[in-house]
TrEMBL record:
Signal peptide start-end: none
Domain of life where this protein originates: Bacteria
Sequence ranges assigned to domain DUF58 in this UniProt record: 204-276
Name of the protein in question: DUF58 domain-containing protein
Family annotation (PANTHER family): SLR1927 PROTEIN, SLR1927 PROTEIN-RELATED
Membrane spanning stretches: 35-55
Keyword terms: Membrane, Transmembrane, Transmembrane helix
Taxonomic source organism: Cellulomonas wangsupingiae
Length: 422
């Protein structure tokens, strides 16, 4: 709570001091009385404001904040609506004399003052204003700042009302062409147990990691002592792991996350169970491999599945050094090797790797179908040379590879990767 005189209050106080000193100097009782009266006005108003705030406090007013849409993607706008409601007569009296403003993180406001529209009624007020997300993450919004001026306009008090909210900002994503005809051709589908629709939808097969648990046939599983799933067309879709390493440079990190998220959503929309793997993926416990990959997300969950994937990107942060980043990537690669999801598809967005890193990633192609975008920043020749070495090593081990430059259009990068199969 901050209380201070307004410009009018300071002027009255200054005039009072001058009149008081002049009256004393000239021996004029009238000037002394006038000076005391002028000084008494702001002092009395300040005391009254203190007493009113102490007695009433924040009682009688309720604040509710709503953001739509929420979460929001980077580059998109959202509208914030703040409702302030008076629950009693004293609250309505306080509401009538309040002015409102909001606080927002610079990632939502762009460092500019928020321009709000205020609508008032007898028992409530509504504040609306737009925000524009400029960076992925979770950013604070609020609390509401309320300002009140006393009846004479000589003292202003300012305080906060309600609580702080958080706005989740997803990375910018783009719609990528459906990859199913390229990545999952008919020979692959037959070899991996995917079937065309038939009248007998109850054929069973052994459970594989990535299968939707809702496809488990519990009666047969209990009888056989092992998990069995119904092997209709959707149940046979190959699981997909989207692997990423996050560079130290922030702009390249955001581009990497945006491309990886777009690829993950494209595969999810095609019906594949999808998970994210790489540095910064923290789910479940906080130990080793549990932090290297998320659980599979299934397309049957609808919009909730897309939201679950994008939520995993909110708190991703790059490693402090490139060495730490590659170590985290290798942890994720080791998890892929031990997850027993044979025949899965691994989509990777990676930077230049050292020789041990290239060898570890090349080994993934022994049991999985690997597709990789090898990123270079394009800042110096060494970076481009190391990216070329990484791409060459992965191609020799059976990966499909496209070399890209950070900041390129994700759609063009994706099409180049798909075209590398021909």
């Amino acid at each position: 709570m901050r209380r201070r005189p307004t410009a009018r209050g300071w002027a009255l106080a200054a005039a009072g001091v001058v009149a008081l000193q002049t009256g004393i100097g000239l021996g004029s009782l009238d000037l002394v009385r006038m000076g005391v009266l002028l000084l008494a006005v702001p002092v009395t108003a300040l005391v009254a404001v203190v007493l009113v705030d102490t007695v009433r406090g924040r009682r009688g007013l309720e604040v509710h904040r709503d953001v739509h849409p929420e979460p929001v993607h980077v580059g998109q706008e959202a509208e914030v609506r703040v409702d302030i409601r008076a629950s009693d007569r004293a609250g309505r009296a306080r509401l009538a004399g309040l002015r409102f403003s909001e606080q927002a993180a610079v990632e939502l406001s762009g460092g500019r003052a928020l321009r709000a529209r205020v609508q008032r009624r007898a028992d409530h007020a509504t504040v609306r204003y737009p925000v524009r997300a400029t960076q992925r993450g979770r950013w604070p919004l609020g609390p509401l700042v309320v300002t009140r001026t006393d009846t004479f306009g000589v003292v202003r008090s300012r305080t906060t009302l309600g609580s702080e909210s958080q706005v989740a900002v997803w990375p910018a994503v783009v719609a990528l062409p459906a990859p199913s005809d390229v990545l999952v051709g008919e020979p692959d589908r037959v070899a991996l147990g995917a079937r065309t629709p038939s009248t007998d939808d109850a054929n069973l097969r052994d459970y594989r990691e990535g299968d939707d648990l809702r496809r488990v046939h519990w009666t047969s599983s209990a009888r056989r002592g092992t998990l069995l799933v119904r092997s209709d067309e959707r149940a046979g879709m190959r699981p997909v792991s989207v692997l990423m390493d996050l560079p130290v440079r922030p702009s390249t990190t955001e581009w990497t996350i945006s491309v990886a998220a777009s690829m993950a959503l494209a595969m999810l929309d095609s019906g594949h169970p999808v998970r994210l793997a790489g540095s910064g993926i923290a789910v479940g416990t906080a130990t080793g491999a549990a932090r290297a990959a998320s659980p599979y997300v299934h397309a049957r969950s609808g919009p909730e599945a897309r939201a679950a994937l994008l939520d995993l990107t909110l708190d991703l942060t790059p490693a402090r050094t490139s060495t730490d980043g590659e170590a985290a990537l290798l942890d994720a690669v080791r998890l892929l090797d031990t997850s027993h999801a044979s025949g899965e598809i691994v989509l990777a967005v990676i930077g230049p790797l050292s020789a041990p890193g290239r060898a570890a990633l090349a080994h993934v192609a022994d049991t999985a179908q690997g597709w990789a975008l090898v990123r270079e920043d394009g800042r110096h020749a060494t970076d481009a040379r190391e990216a070329h070495h990484t791409a060459t090593a992965l191609r020799r081990s059976g990966w499909r590879v496209a070399q890209v430059t950070a900041g390129e259009d994700p759609v063009q990068c994706w099409l180049r990767l798909l075209g590398s199969a021909s």
